[in-house]
Amino acid sequence: MATVSSASMLVAAAARTRLRPLGLRQHGRSRLWLDDRGWWLGLVEFPSPRWSQGSGLHVGAMWLWQDVDHFTFNVSERLRGAADYRDDGQFAPVAEELAFLARERIEELRCKFVDLASVGRYMAVQPIGRELVWEPWNAGIVAALAGDTAVAQKRLSAVLREDPLVPWIDEAQGAARELLHMVHDQRAVRDWVVDRVSSCRQRLALEPPKPTEEALARIF
After folding, report:
1. Residue 41, H or E segment
2. Which of 110, 170, 202, 214 supports an S-S bond with 164, CB 3.0-4.6 Å?
3. pLDDT tens, residue order, the chain (220 aa)
4. Count of CB atoms within 10 A of residue 55's CB?
5. 54: burial class by Cβ within 10 Å (0-12, 13-18, 19+)?
6. Are 157 and 144 in contact (CB under 8 A)?
7. With 0-12 CB in 10 A as exposed, 13-18 as middle and 19+ as buried, what is 209?
8. What are phi and psi of 83, to 5 degrees?
9. How far does CA 32 lie from the centroid of its chain?
C-alpha cells in the first residue's frame, strides 16, 4: 500500500472538518472532494506540488450532462498555488486555511448555481469563440432546456464550426447535432439531458442519494 504523505494527511483532516459537515465526500483516498448536487458536481481539489509535499486549491463545478467517465472542471478557479510542506507545525494552519477557503467557495457555488436559470445567466456572459468547444456546447444545452431555441441553435452551431481534431470534439459535435434535431421539442431535450445525467452518474460511480429520473425531470 502506498504511503500517505504527512501533507496529504493534514489536508484530509482539515477537509473532513470543514467540508464533510456540508455534505461533501472525499473521492476514495484522493485529494478530490465532491459536492453532489444531483445534476452538477461541486469539485474541490487540493493538488500536490510536482516535486515536493504540500498543496494548492482548485474549486469549480462540473455539469453532469456531459456524460463522461472522469471528473472535469467546467467552471474553474485556482484559488491557491502550491504551498510547500516543511513540517506538521508549519503546514497544519496552511491546510486549515485551504479547507476554510474551499468551504467558502463551495457555499458560493451553491448559491450561484441554485437552479437552471442561474446557470443560464452565468453562461450568457461566458466567451464564445474559436477553440472554446465546451462553453457553447454547455450553453446550448441550457438554452435548449429553457426553451430558448434561437440561442440554443446559435451556441450549438458554434460547436459544429470547430475542426474535429481529436475524438472528444467529434463526440461533442455528434451530441450537438442530436440536440439541433430536437431543439424545438423541449420535452425531448429534457429527456435527453436526464438520460445523460443518469448515465454520467453511473459512469462516475456516484454514491447515493442518487436522484431518480423523475426527480431530475422535475429539475429540468
Report:
1. strand 40-45
2. 170
3. 456 789 899 999 999 999 999 999 999 989 999 999 999 999 999 998 877 888 999 999 999 999 999 999 999 888 888 888 899 999 999 999 999 999 999 999 999 999 999 999 998 887 666 557 899 999 999 999 999 999 999 999 999 998 888 999 999 999 999 999 999 999 999 999 999 999 999 999 997 656 666 666 667 7
4. 27
5. buried
6. no
7. exposed
8. -100, 130
9. 12
Classify 94 as helix, strand or coil.
Answer: helix
DSSP-derived secondary structure for 136-151: HHHHHHHHHHTT-HHH
Cell of 47: 493538488
Q: Is the peptide bond before 209 cis (omega within 30 degrees of 0)?
A: yes
Is there a contact between 53 and 85 (Cβ–Cβ < 8 Å)?
A: yes
User: For the chain, where are the alpha helices, taking DSSP H only?
Assistant: 6-18, 88-112, 116-124, 134-145, 149-160, 167-182, 186-203, 213-219
| Residue-level length of the chain | 220
Angle made by CA atoms 169, 156, 134, in degrees to the nearest 5 = 45
CB 42 within 8 A of CB 77: no
Distance (Å, whole) CA 85 – CA 184: 55
- Residue 197 CA to residue 200 CA, distance in Å, equals 5
Radius of gyration of the chain (CA): 19
